[in-house]
Structure formats: structure tokens, C-alpha cells
UniProtKB/TrEMBL annotation:
Keywords: Monooxygenase, Oxidoreductase. Pfam families: Bac_luciferase. PANTHER family: LUCIFERASE-LIKE MONOOXYGENASE. This is Luciferase-like monooxygenase. The lineage of its organism: Bacteria, Pseudomonadati, Pseudomonadota, Betaproteobacteria, Burkholderiales.
Amino acid sequence: MAPGRAGPAVLADSLELAGRLDRLGYHRLWLSEHHESHFCWAVPEVMVAALAQRTRALRIGTAAVLLPVRNPLLLAESFRVLEALTPGRIDLGVCAAVPLDPVALAALAEQPGPDVAALMASFDGRLGVLLDYLRGRFPDGHRFACGATPPFVDAPPVWVMGSGPGSAATAAARGAHYAYSLFHKGSRQDPAVPAAYRERRPDGRVALAVSCISADTAAAAAAQRRLVEGWLRDDMRVVLSGTHDDCREQVLALAQRFRADEVILLHLWHDPARRVDAIEAMASLIHPLAEPVRA
């Protein structure tokens, strides 16, 4: 959210941006979940519904829902409703992270001073339950066995977002697609991570999540990078920056190095006009070279 931008303007910018991405031929738009005041989306699935109704072909999803503090049944039913409203265009992305803000964490966990390690360790089990609800498959005698409604739609694709071998192994074991983050500082940026996922699940998709500062000139990109690195949290970093041509080459090189099916770009511009410029420039450079992708 840019300084001086009011909430309604940010919502309007997001709706306009989704329409622009749709027209430019982008494949997906994913929204994150954050509970700190400087980020916009605390409940991204609400915005997913609005954006999906404003677009025609663009897939809309989350990257990612904080599953350790979410109810799997409620999440499954929410995304089934979204899938019913816009069939074939919804992605459910989840991760093992929890809110950084301690007050928000305690409120969502419904306990004071929750055990963060225990919450994060619950991710695999919660993911399994979420998938059981979505797929309508539970072991015999399971105490929470029930199907997520509405039952007349297919479950949307599920993606696991992560930055290391543990998340890749979980995604492969649970039959989910995998998005590998390079912009979290905990990421080793190791091609072996998505390679291990592919070995265990050859039919799964791999997306590479990259933070990007793309500008008309190298000087403008460098100035924005200095500014961004002054306020980025300790767990994030800028992966690539430069002119639009520079960023294009870097994106293509990363996609080849990591054998990624897709690259997800996080454009680090607060200024909506600069962000739109970067998105349009990258679309004109990359999209014509991209192969058609499946869900």
C-alpha cells in the first residue's frame, strides 16, 4: 500500500490491475495473507471472489493462506464456493507460516502466547485434512469425516508455497503443486529443491516465486532497490532488478536454471503507475515466449 493511498483507492487499483493482467494474457494472479497493517489482504479469499468476477480468463488464487491458523473445513468450503462461482479459474495456495504480529497470531490461534513451532509443525497434518475435505476422502471411522460443500463442483488445484526441501517434500507427498520462493531469506535458492519435488511427483507443476524491481532505466531500478531494502522485513529480499530488458533475461535464466513451469513475479513498486509500467513491460517481453500452461 503506497503512502497516502486510502483503502478504497487500493481496492480500486487492485480491481483495475486484475482486468489489465487479464487483457495482457497473464495466467495467474495470487494474493497473500498478512495481518500487519502495512499489507492489504488479511482474508485474501474475499478479494479472490471480487477479482474473479471482474476477469474472464485469469486464474485467481492465494499465495498463500496461513494454514496453521486456519480451519481446514471452512477453508475447503470457501474455495469450493469460489470454484462454483468461477469454474476452472481458482487456485488454493497454502503455506506453513503464521502471522508475524504477536497480537494477530494469538487472536487467530485463540490462545495467548501460542507455540509457533508447534503451529508450524501442524501444517502437514492440516494440509492432509484440507485435502481430505476437498476430495471427499477420509479414512473409515474418522471423527471429522464429512464432505466440503458445495458437493457439485470439482476441488480447485492446491499449491504448497515454501522455501526449502521440507515444503517440497510435503507438496509431493500430498499430491499438491509446488511454488518455490526465492525471495524469502530462508530460501537456499537451490535448484535441487524443485528437482526433488519433480522426482517424487513428475505430473506436478513447479512455479518459481521471484521479487522484482523492473524499471525503464537502471538508475530508476537501483534507486527503488535502495528504498525497498530499507523497509523490507528481515525475512525477505530483492531477487532481481534492472531495466525491463535486464529483468526479462534474468527471469528466463532463472526459469531455465530451476526448470520452472511458471515464474510468479512480486513487483516491488508501491507506486501503482510504476507497477503497471513494469507489469506491461514484462508481459510484452515474456508472454510471447511462454508456452501454453495447464491448471
